[in-house]
Design brief:
The complex is a heterotrimer of chains A (343), B (339) and C (513). Chain B contains 14 helices and two strands. By secondary structure, chain B is mostly helical. Chain B has one domain: Orthogonal Bundle (ABC transporter involved in vitamin B12 uptake, BtuC), CATH 1.10.3470. A two-stranded antiparallel sheet of chain B has the order 1-2. In chain B, helix 3 packs antiparallel against helix 11, helix 7 packs across helix 11 and helix 8 crosses helix 9. The radius of gyration of chain B is 21 Å and the shape is globular. In chain C, the strands form five sheets. Chain C has a six-stranded mixed beta sheet, with helices on both faces. The chains are: A mainly alpha (343), B mainly alpha (339), C alpha/beta (513).
Chain lengths: 343, 339, 513
């Protein structure tokens, strides 16, 4: 991609992606309200917000990873692994607090494996996390087989399905909000965030500026592991069910939300705000369609299309500009040829 | 000057070159695993057991043919599972809606449908310039969603399908199922195509050095597009064969199969960084994974370990490929030989 | 040798933006002749090659082949006309065989449309034999050395029926035997009537292989003719002969204690026996031709590239197996050669770029304080007299201003010593003198500076001492009075007459004249 092409593409995005998302979100909310009178009810919003918590959690560290030009496809498998582990431990009469801690630790280890393979061995993160996606999910099956563990203590499942007192906000969603704020602060207001953008924007320049790239990337993968494990715990408590196949396919939704949120695979760009907006957008679309009794499948189609359009549109705009530029240069060359042949 | 022959036989092969190649290692591993399994349980080599093995491998091996072309070019196609799902259901629907329709027509229709779906990928990637990961992730969703919507909770059952069609999955010729023969024939066709035709070599060139490919005058966009068209068509065919093999098709048919396909391909020697590998190797990779599964079963390892092992094998294959690449890179670090 | 040139550049002019790169260049290449093109960095050689190769179009003047004027709009057009270029970095398909590389996209076919591998291998074998090279067409390119890869490129050119072969620094990475082999190949090409152009810095080789030589300087041809009429001294004199303007305000400073000491630095295949010291207040110039290994040495001192052996110490602190962070902590700053690829994150603002090295300083209570960020950035960019909005992405800034941002970034770390690599490359005259003024000022205030530069007037004007590198080794250390352009160029091309000369170079006839 030429330098000019890059800058035009960037320009095209600069019509503030977050603004576009916010507008789309507003349209979705208004549209939802018009289509179905139950849409704006508190109960519906509790459902809506609760249902997307896990994917939303997965998307947070994933955004940071994608900004650094890596990817982590194993997040849903770590979720499943954590869920299975929690069930296993609970069945073995291990206390919940300890069980939760072990699960988070397992998530950290899983993330560390990803980080180690990608950073220390320099293996491409796409391929590695396809491998660990299978590996971790495999471990989940090893732990739990096709059993399911239920009967989790009500204090915990209560958190899973409960809401903040006097509001319609589900408790897990509140947890997500806290973490979203943490990530927002991390990415936009700390030196760690500055380094993340630098690595994604130009890893060589970051290296030459003394940024410890290895340490940062490994940390991001570990964070992804921990948060994915947390999502697994929440999922388990919400449905009061621990199964090895929990969360299969979530990574695709998470990535879709991240890309749609303005974090490009080319790295170096994107905001937490954008990702949160896109998560809400997808969540609302899901909800609206469910209320309208539209088949679940349509949502898949919509999510997939949104993902593609969010990359296609800026590309098209940039390439038409490039084509115009090329035409101009060809005219210049023709003029030059005419000049020199007349000598 | 010493030269290292860590090459894969992508030109006219020599025996010596083959012996040190990935394909040879795979054959060796398969042989070892087969030996182990047979010792543990002689039933492994019985005709019935072998037939099952071949049937199990065949559809993945078919998909691997398409994925090889894709990965050779440093691309990826995640949408194949959704294409298979759609065309499998399409095949069943054709049989139900048009009783007496010849199997050949159904197969062709399925392949054509796959070609069209692959064309969507091709257009978005080659001309829309959207990275393959994003595109095929999106179409994985879109196609599967469309499939669910179309199937709408229904299901194709074996009774709906003419016996002659199901025979592809059950009948054998010289002990090998018809299904497997079809895949083997296609393996030969694709292998020849990749080795003996300019277009085939261009897939390698694009993955090996995209800049040099442009300089050599290759129309890279077009070549990438054809790759995804072929991958789609193969997936389409695989859908028809899926129906023949299983007889039952619902909206979840082939869901998740893309990961096994990619793993087989990479284990089979098609480096994820492109430019290296053969379809023979990739199919051997699929066979290896399948035999390994069987070995685990016969070793009485709970089937729940399968996926974990699959993941571990992929990681191992990637690590090995990276190590080999690293060793060659060391040679080009020397700037002055007298220093 | 006929009197009609196979290809001829006539009165070529070329500018990039406002920079005049080629002025009235006329250059004929005759069949069966090796014509060497020499000149220091920036003389315009590579632009000339690119015009012949079809990568650039001349602004004025003509390219003539066979008496007619030709216009190459692409490399494919040039290749089909019979002009091939062998670059220093071959672009080959590593995973494919030699024969496949040569014939990609134009493979010979059999009746069925199948690729005729036998024919391909036969043709390539033929070329290999004719050139006297013991490679086989089926060999994968992957294991080949640069020398062998060049042979592949040459064969590719021959299969294009190349009448003109241009080789850009062909012997740079070759061993003695490989050079010999290349010369034999060249002779056979000459016998076939190919017109060959060598762009090279190696004087002995140029004199050994060429029949004709052209010397360029500052975009013009300053000398041309049969090689018999030249001596090495004359070539060098023509390469550098210009009057020195006293543009560079380096003030006399009494050097203080030693800040940087490096001993016997070695990186296999890249550089060896590198030892020197830098004192407070000194600017030590590190001169040499492009590719001599200076940037690699700098990167190794800074900890980005590995060192196989040797010591680096700053103010007495030894740095071992160190990273860039260690170097920074010890007080080294490093302004890299390529500001767009290595020095700046182009999409980030100047503020963020300038504070990337001192992130801990922009914090307040653990969070980034936008004010502090801006304040620190502004402080240092103003010191550099940066003109431009510091809150815009740096890719909108001019080259000179971009360089100022990079400098600001490193000055913010308040280093004890600074390595600057090509500080004024691609920078306009005004910004150039500002950079020089800054460096002088820094030295005066006690900083130790190593300045890598291929710009001889800059080196001579700014440096208290000049070290010269040639192909990975230090070939000279010149004091300020000794450092004339000719002396530096002598050492840079491997004609070592000065103090630093390893025992090895005395025994090895190749690296000394």
């Amino acid at each position: 991609m030429s330098q000019e092409e890059k800058s035009t593409r960037r320009l095209a995005r600069r019509v503030n992606w977050e603004t576009i998302l916010a507008v789309l979100l507003a349209i979705a909310i208004v549209g939802g309200g018009i289509l179905n009178k139950d849409f704006l009810s508190p109960e519906n919003w509790t459902n809506l917000l609760a249902n997307f918590v896990e994917i939303a959690l997965l998307a947070l560290p994933l955004s940071l990873i994608v900004i650094t030009k890596e990817i982590d496809l194993s997040v849903a498998s770590i979720l499943g692994l954590s869920s299975s582990l929690l069930g296993l431990l609970w069945e073995a009469k291990v206390s919940m607090p300890l069980g939760i801690l072990v699960c988070l630790l397992a998530g950290a280890l899983a993330g560390a494996l990803n980080g180690f393979l990608v950073v220390r061995f320099g293996l491409p993160s796409l391929a590695v996390t396809i491998g660990t996606l299978a590996l971790f999910r495999g471990f989940a099956y090893v732990l739990l087989g096709d059993k399911a563990v239920a009967d989790f203590p009500p204090e915990y499942t209560g958190f899973g399905i409960g809401t903040i007192p006097y509001t319609f906000i589900p408790s897990p969603f509140a947890l997500f909000v806290i973490l979203a704020v943490v990530f927002w602060l991390l990415l936009h207001h700390t030196t760690v965030g500055r380094r993340i953008y630098a690595i994604g924007g130009n890893q060589t320049a970051a290296l030459f500026s003394g940024v410890n790239i290895s340490r940062l990337k490994v940390s991001l993968f570990i964070a992804s592991g921990v948060i994915s494990a947390l999502a697994g715990i929440i999922y388990t408590l919400r449905f009061s069910s621990s199964r090895a196949d929990n969360g299969i396919g979530f990574e695709l939704s998470a990535i879709a939300a991240v890309i749609l949120g303005g974090v490009t695979v080319q790295g170096g760009r994107g905001t937490i705000t954008g990702v949160v907006l896109s998560l809400l957008l997808i969540g609302i679309l899901n909800n609206v369609l469910t209320l309208a009794d539209v088949a679940n499948e349509i949502l898949r189609i919509v999510t997939g299309s949104l993902l593609i359009v969010s990359v296609l549109l800026p590309n098209l705009i940039a390439s038409t500009r490039e084509r115009l530029r090329l035409l101009q240069r060809q005219r210049e060359i023709a003029k030059l040829a005419a000049v020199s042949t007349t000598k | 000057m010493t030269k290292e022959f860590e090459s894969r036989p992508n030109g006219p092969g020599q025996l010596k070159v083959f012996m040190r190649s990935r394909e040879a290692s795979l054959v060796l591993l398969i042989a070892i695993l087969t030996a182990i399994t047979t010792v543990l349980n002689p039933r492994f080599l019985s005709p019935q057991s072998l037939k099952d093995l071949m049937l199990n491998v065949s559809i993945i091996a078919l998909l691997v043919l398409g994925q090889t072309i894709i990965i050779l070019m440093r691309q990826i196609d995640l949408s194949i599972s959704s294409i298979v799902g759609i065309t499998a259901f399409l095949s069943g629907t054709l049989f139900i809606g048009h009783p007496g329709v010849p199997s050949v027509v159904v197969v062709l229709a399925a392949t054509l449908a796959g070609l069209i779906l692959g064309g969507v990928n091709a257009a978005l990637i080659a001309w829309g310039k959207i990275p393959a990961l994003i595109t095929t992730l999106g179409t994985l969703y879109i196609f599967r969603g469309a499939n669910y919507a179309w199937v709408h909770g229904r299901q194709i059952n074996a009774v709906n399908v003419p016996g002659s069609f199901l025979a592809i999955g059950t009948a054998t010729f010289m002990g090998v199922p018809i299904l497997t023969w079809i895949v083997l024939i296609l393996l030969v066709v694709v292998a020849i195509g990749l080795r003996q035709y300019g277009a085939g070599r261009e897939y390698y060139a694009i993955g090996s050095n995209p800049n040099a490919a442009v300089l050599a005058g290759i129309n890279v966009s077009w070549r990438i597009a054809t790759g995804f068209l072929i991958s789609g068509a193969i997936a389409g065919l695989a859908g028809a064969l899926w129906l023949a093999r299983f007889g039952t098709v619902d909206a979840t048919a082939a869901e998740g199969i893309e990961l096994g396909v990619i793993t087989s391909t990479v284990v089979g020697g098609v480096a994820i960084t492109g430019g290296v590998g053969t379809v023979v190797g990739a199919v051997l990779g699929a066979l290896l994974l399948s035999v390994f599964s069987s070995t685990l079963v016969f070793l009485r390892v709970p089937s729940f370990w399968q996926q974990a092992f699959q993941g571990a094998m992929l990681l191992l294959a990637i690590a090995v490929d990276a190590y080999l690449a690293f060793r060659h890179a060391l040679r080009s670090r020397v700037k002055w030989s007298h220093v | 040798m006929s009197s009609e040139p196979t290809i001829e550049l006539v009165d070529i002019y070329k500018s990039f933006g406002s920079t005049r790169v080629l002025e009235g260049v006329t250059l004929p290449l005759f069949p069966g002749e090796v014509h060497s093109l020499m000149g220091e960095n920036g003389a315009g050689k590579s632009t000339l090659v690119k015009i012949m190769a079809g990568l650039h179009l001349a602004d004025k003047g003509a390219v003539r082949m066979g008496g007619r004027e030709v216009l190459f709009r692409s490399t494919a057009q040039a290749q089909h006309a019979g002009v091939s270029v062998i670059y220093q970095e071959p672009t080959l398909f590593r995973d494919l065989s030699i024969a496949e590389n040569v014939f990609m996209h134009r493979q010979p076919k059999t009746r069925y449309g199948w690729i005729d591998y036998a024919e391909m291998n036969r043709a390539v074998s033929g070329h290999l034999r004719q050139l006297g090279v013991s490679l086989r067409p089926e060999d994968p390119v992957l294991g080949l050395s640069i020398a062998d890869q060049q042979i592949v490129e040459i064969i590719k050119a021959l299969t294009f029926e190349a009448k003109v072969l241009i080789m850009d620094e062909p012997t740079a990475a070759l061993s003695l035997e490989e050079v010999k082999r290349l010369f034999e190949v060249t002779q056979r090409l000459r016998d076939r009537g190919v017109a060959i152009m060598f762009v090279s810095h190696r004087l002995e080789e140029v004199f050994a292989i060429s029949q004709r030589i052209t010397v360029m300087r500052d975009g013009q041809v300053v000398g041309s003719g049969p090689i018999a009429e030249w001596t090495t001294e004359e070539v060098i004199r023509k390469m550098v002969g210009r009057s020195l303007d006293a543009l560079y305000p380096k003030e006399k400073v009494d050097p203080g204690e030693v800040i940087l000491r490096v001993r016997n630095l070695r990186r296999a295949g890249v550089f060896k026996n590198i030892s020197f010291e830098v004192r407070r207040g000194e600017i030590v110039g590190l001169a040499g031709l492009v590719g001599a290994g200076r940037s690699e040495v700098a990167r190794a001192i800074f900890g980005i590239d590995p060192l196989d052996s040797g010591e680096v110490s700053v103010n007495g602190t030894h740095l071992r197996n160190h990273t860039a962070q260690d170097a920074m902590a010890a007080g080294i700053g490093f302004v890299p050669e390529d500001r767009q690829q290595q020095g700046l994150v182009m999409e980030m603002t100047a503020t963020r770029n300038a504070t990337l090295t001192v992130l801990p300083q922009v914090q307040r209570f653990g969070f980034v304080s936008r004010e502090k960020e801006r304040q620190i950035a502004a402080q240092w960019t103003e010191r550099m007299r940066l003109k431009g909005h510091i809150d815009e992405p740096v890719n909108i800034l001019s080259g000179g201003n971009q360089q100022k941002v990079v400098l600001a970034k490193w000055l913010a770390t308040k280093p004890k010593m600074l390595i600057v690599d090509e500080p004024t490359r691609g920078v306009d005259v005004g910004a150039k003198s500002e950079v020089h003024r800054t460096l002088s000022q820094l030295a005066k205030n006690g900083m130790a500076i190593v300045m890598i530069s291929s710009d001889l007037p800059e080196v001579i004007g700014m440096a208290d001492r000049v070290l010269v590198m040639h192909e990975g080794k230090l070939t000279a250390e010149l004091s300020r009075p000794e450092a004339t352009e000719e002396a530096i160029m002598f050492a840079a091309t491997g004609q070592t007459t000065s103090r630093i000369q390893s025992k090895e170079s005395k025994n090895n006839p190749k690296s000394s004249s």
